[in-house]
Specification:
By secondary structure, this protein is α+β, with helices and mostly antiparallel strands. It contains 18 helices and 37 strands. α3 packs across α17 and α5 packs across α6.
């Protein structure tokens, strides 16, 4: 094995400095603003990855390393099989023809450059230059060696088999996880292969590698991948790449990225602000991925290959993370894609033996992580905003069965247990007392019951389901599920103003600390966040939440308290228990999805100026053009979509309501190219870092005194003009008669 020593390396490190107007000669296209390294060093948990791919494409790669700060990479990547997943297959270039080679080599590296459509790196100890560009289901490497004329490539599969082909290429497969989902590969080179030899890999014969020897200082390698077969992988390659020129493929990729990112045009003198914006938009395009291959797709739900009938099949979605903002953003700028994604959900449900709507559809199937059944929100949000082209009745059937037949227990996929029966009868998920032993065998020993989080999330799901029932004229279902959507009231503690867990006898769990009760991640009662976050987890009905608090004034005081309450412990102790609740402003966590709507809730209480102040402050504090510029886990576009919306000046607080809350735009001009071809423009006059407060507004030529607008107001094109200043106009949109809509009262 080659000796690895420490080196210093240089990478794209963008420092967030002064915002100076760009020089005229430095004209940039949208993709030039994307910094894939933004957030590559995490504050505590999982960093972002500098993913190289085309928008929503099946093929994704990023350097294989433990962390951005590592000075080593492990070979060269072929394909990432799931968001934040490990790479399938691997290429290790070798200078000369040494003996006793391992299947995968580590390399020190330097001069790494990554854009969404290209990856280049210098393996400095080996003096090897690497250049790479992806297509949709195929990729292309140019590997240059400095001195030797005879060089080698090791092609490795970690859990599969490779074989030489009759044409001098390599074909094979790798099982993903423990299978049966399989990824296939076909590789070929421009230079003739002098010799192909299987590399002896001890212990596990399913993990094998081949050594390809070339009499060449440069090796041009191209490959295709497939989830169907080696032959299909070859077809995918031949369809997409007929060259060995990385520049040509990178140019095509660059054009595709500019086409996607230019759907939103922004004007600002601040280069860093534009970088944060377009980098965030790039990350929204990382998922879901289109895995249709020549009109067919492999579905892990039933482990079969299906015809797609002209409708691309998408998967790899963590809906708990993405339903809040990523899916609503696609409704505006990629409605056909969003419709196809919903079609894919329905197909998965129909292919499933239980008929349940998926929650975490991945390449390997529905992993059912986190809690809730939020696909119902994705579906109703799309439908209420005018998207058609999918079977709403079929979607309703699958969502209803998931919400009535499947257990609400987090991180499980099992039929109703006795505590689910209890929920349907009593209207809340019962909690265990501190140190009380769990007696439900299906409960996850680490994730626990999450009793309050489950109750609140299910209320929202029930509200979305009630709206579909109403649309389908299922009157009894509508009334029943609408009533269920108010079940959060059963856990509201009027004495404290928090949602408080109850035991099976209906008693509040006592004693109780709203910051720290609930064990690791507060999972006994909440989920990843404490009670201060879940105090606001009624996105479908803020008006009723205000009523529960007693008044709009109390509601605002509670909101302010969330941002002002101290951690209550040292950071060391706080984050040891609540590592997901980073990006803190008081008890507010900018780093976790259930918090995203909270700054906008001031709009519902007649204090929109506070929403404007909070949003600008949070964007400035936590989203920056640097290596630590993302405050928490970026789960495939979920967090980034919050940045995109909030930077434009509005946000979908309630997916499933055809409304948007107004915040404070960071750009002086925004043009959104809607999917139907129309333009929605936002003009923020006098907008600057200081001028964050709205003084007045005009929407489509009419004076506007509401802190929200409807989807119908913008979908046919329109213009919102905001006059900004550095002092709040506390009268603008402050009337309680003009607050955003909430859920209808129970019938």
């Amino acid at each position: 094995m080659k000796k690895i020593v420490f080196i210093n390396f240089i990478s794209f490190l963008f420092l967030c400095g002064c915002c100076n107007p760009p020089l005229k000669k430095q004209m940039k296209s949208p993709v030039d603003y994307v910094n894939p390294y933004m957030g590559n060093i995490s504050h505590l948990l999982v960093p972002t990855y500098p993913t190289v791919h085309l928008p929503n494409s099946m093929l994704r790669v990023y350097p294989e390393r433990s962390d951005y700060t590592s000075d080593c990479i492990t070979g060269l990547p072929i394909a990432v099989t799931s968001h934040r997943g490990s790479s399938a297959f691997n290429i290790s270039p070798v200078s000369g023809t040494p003996s006793d080679l391992p299947a995968v080599l580590q390399y020190t590296y330097d001069n790494e450059k990554i854009s969404p459509y290209r990856y280049s790196v210098y393996l400095d100890e080996e003096n090897i230059e690497v250049d790479y560009a992806p297509s949709h289901q195929s990729g292309l490497y140019t590997i240059g060696f400095e001195n030797e004329s005879t060089n080698q490539l090791i092609i490795n599969t970690r859990n599969g088999k490779l074989n030489p082909t009759s044409t001098g290429g390599i074909g094979g497969y790798q099982l993903i996880g423990n299978g049966p989902t399989t990824i296939y590969i076909y590789l070929e080179s421009k230079q003739p292969v002098k010799n192909i030899e299987e590399l002896a890999v001890p212990k596990n014969r399913r993990n094998n590698a081949y050594v390809l020897t070339f009499d060449s200082k440069q090796i041009n390698l191209r490959y295709g991948i497939s989830f169907i077969s080696v032959e299909q992988a070859k077809k995918n390659l031949k369809r997409e790449i007929n060259t060995y020129d990385v520049n040509e493929i990178a140019s095509i990729g660059r054009d595709k990225w500019n086409e996607a990112l230019s759907k939103i045009e922004v004007v600002s003198d601040c280069e860093d602000t534009k970088t944060v914006f377009y980098t965030s938009l790039y990350r929204v395009y990382e998922r879901m991925i289109n895995i249709s291959e020549d009109g067919k797709y492999y579905s892990a739900t039933d482990q079969q290959v299906h015809e797609d009938n002209g409708i691309p099949f998408y998967t790899d979605d963590w809906i708990w993370d993405t339903y809040r903002a990523a899916h609503p953003l696609r409704i505006l700028i990629e409605s056909e894609m969003e419709t196809n994604m919903i079609q894919s959900y329905i197909r998965m449900a129909q292919q499933s033996p239980d008929g349940w709507m998926p929650t975490f559809p991945e390449i390997t199937g529905d992993s059912h992580r986190m809690n809730g059944n939020h696909a119902v929100a994705v579906i109703w949000d799309a439908y209420c905003k005018g998207l058609r082209g999918f079977d709403l009745e079929a979607a309703y059937k699958a969502c209803k069965s998931a919400l009535t037949e499947k257990s609400f227990l987090p991180w499980t996929k099992t039929p109703n247990t006795e505590i689910d029966v209890f929920y349907h009868e009593k209207g809340y998920f019962p909690a265990l007392k501190e140190n009380e032993k769990e007696y439900i065998r299906e409960a996850n020993s680490f994730e626990k019951r999450q009793s309050v989080a489950v109750t609140l999330g299910t209320c929202y799901d029930h509200w979305c389901l009630s709206q579909i029932a109403k649309e389908l004229k299922q009157e009894e279902d509508y009334k029943y599920f609408l009533k269920c959507s108010y079940n959060y009231r059963n856990l509201y503690n009027a004495q404290t103003g928090f949602f408080h867990p109850k035991d099976i006898k209906g008693n509040f769990i006592m004693p109780f600390d709203y910051r720290f009760s609930g064990g690791q991640g507060a999972r006994d009662y909440y989920d990843e966040n404490n009670a201060y976050t879940y105090r606001w987890d009624v996105p479908h009905n803020p008006a009723d939440l205000i009523q529960l608090t007693g008044s709009s004034e109390n509601f605002v005081n509670y909101l302010n308290g969330t941002f002002r309450e101290s951690l209550g412990k040292s950071k060391f102790d706080f984050y040891a228990q609540l590592p997901d609740q980073t990006g803190n402003v008081g008890q507010f966590s900018m780093a976790n999805e259930p918090s995203f709507h909270i700054p906008y809730l001031y709009n519902y209480a007649g204090e929109p100026w506070m929403t404007q102040k909070r949003i600008r402050t949070l964007l400035n504090e936590w989203y920056r053009n640097d290596l630590m510029g993302v405050p928490g886990d970026e789960d495939g576009g979920g967090m980034s979509a919050f940045v995109v919306f909030s930077s434009m000046g509005f946000y979908p607080v309630t997916p499933g309501s055809s409304t948007y809350n107004i915040g404070s735009p960071v750009f002086s001009n925004i043009k959104i190219k809607l999917s139907n071809g129309n333009i929605f423009e936002i003009v923020a006059q006098n907008c600057s870092a200081e001028n964050k407060y709205i003084q007045s507004a005009v929407l489509n030529g009419v004076d506007w005194d509401k802190p929200w607008f409807s989807h119908e107001d913008i979908i046919n094109g329109g213009k919102l003009v905001l006059v900004m200043d550095n002092k709040a106009n506390k009268n603008w949109a402050s009337s309680l008669e003009n607050v955003p809509p909430s859920a209808e009262p129970m019938h």
